[in-house]
Amino acid sequence: MKKNTVLHRSLHWIIALGMSVLFITGFLRMYWMSKTVITTAINKNVEIQSLNLDKQALRPIVHSIQSPMFDWHVYAAYLITFAFIARVVYMLAKGIKFPNPFSKNTLNKDKFQGLMYLAFYLLIAVQIVTGAILKYDLGSESIRDLSETVHKFAVYWTPAFILLHFVGIAISENTNRKGIVSNMIGGDA
Predict the structure, then answer these.
(1) What pLDDT, in 10s, does the model give residues 87-98?
(2) 101 near 91, Cβ under 8 Å?
(3) How many CB atoms lie within 10 A of CB 19?
(4) What is the CB-side half-sphere exposure of residue 169 using CA atoms within 13 A?
(5) What are the two backbone dihedrals, phi and then psi, of residue 50, each rounded to the nearest 5 degrees?
(6) Can you list the domains of the chain with their CATH numbers?
(7) Which of 3, 32, 101, 172 is the most exposed place for a label (fewest CB within 10 A)?
(8) What is the pLDDT of residues 24-51, one digit of tens each?
């Protein structure tokens, strides 16, 4: 098995870390720390109920609670964008290719691997573009609404990808690519 370079391994782990932070902060913002959840929690407080605050008055409070988490989401997004571009440039420069999932000459397990790589790179690119549209308020309102819907889809595909990634690693370790884990961690083949 070919040894992965330090750059290759570093980009892999930077992307893994960035995806983890993006998933966690996105999940929290959508579910446990959403505007609705925070507003409901605030309104359950008897002292606050007596103030009779409407949604507009609660907005700055909710924003101040969500803001630090969202900052981490944005930092991780910049990190992912940098690492993704660097990874694509690195792969092109080194001539690294993943198996062609559409070739008749490719083995079925390699087709699946190639399809997973293709889906991963496509989904990451879509997340980067939709995230930029949302962050910088680009395009029409309908484009931003569509981008938000597509961007939130990552909360579902990210854990599915991670699970499939680990299944693929387990299969590889137990078939023809023993040592793939140690190679990606320390460069040992």
Answers:
(1) 999 999 999 899
(2) no
(3) 21
(4) 13
(5) -65, -20
(6) 6-186 (1.20.950.20)
(7) 32
(8) 999 999 999 999 999 888 888 878 878 8
DSSP state of 137: T
User: Residue 135, CB half-sphere, CA atoms under 13 Å: how many?
Assistant: 14
Buried b / exposed e over 68-101, threshold 16 CB at 10 Å, is eebeebeebbebbbebbeebeeebeeeeeeebeb
Two structure tokens written together for 31: 């579910």
Residues 134-162: tens digit of each pLDDT:
999 999 999 999 999 999 999 999 999 99
State the Cα–Cα distance between residues 9 and 7, nearest whole angstrom.
Answer: 5
Evaluate if residue 189 carries a pLDDT over 70. Answer: no
Query: What's the token pair of residue 175?
Result: 């078939």
Q: Which of 150, 105, 103 is CA-nearest to residue 125?
A: 150
What pLDDT is attached to residue 183? 85
Nearest 5°: phi and psi at 54? -90, 180
Q: Which residue do the tokens 């490719």 mark?
A: 106
Q: How far apart are CA 42 and CA 62, in angstroms?
A: 9
